[in-house]
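Can't paste images in this forum, so I'm doing it all in text. The chain is below; anyone willing to post the predicted structure tokens underneath?
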Amino acid sequence: RGFKNEDYTRRKRLMENYLLEYLPGGYHLFINLFEQLFETPDNKMLKLPALEKWFLEESRRFGADRPLLDSFANVVRLALTAERVLPKKIYSLHPPMMSATFSQEQCAALLAQRFFKNDMIG
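Text version of the structure:
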């Protein structure tokens, strides 16, 4: 809604493209999405050992990686709902707004969106 900055538009496009290809692309496409969202230099791979370990263990437990890929895709879908479900110009919480009241759907969108913010990786 309203004015969207270039970074928002780029990130939204990357997530929408991920949803089109996530099943054949598998886990590596998911990591590639993070690398693009976080603008990781081409010569440097993003290392997420805890996520990779969890993915491998759960894939073995399920006997397939499809349920996990579907779960990742659902997080992406939730993040993409932020623009639709959140009040105008409140696509995420930033200072000085430190408190707000949201529905469950709005909370899910905010949490999913935070999952893809590069200031969470350090």
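Residues 79 and 113 are 4 Å apart (CA to CA). The chain has one domain: 6-120.
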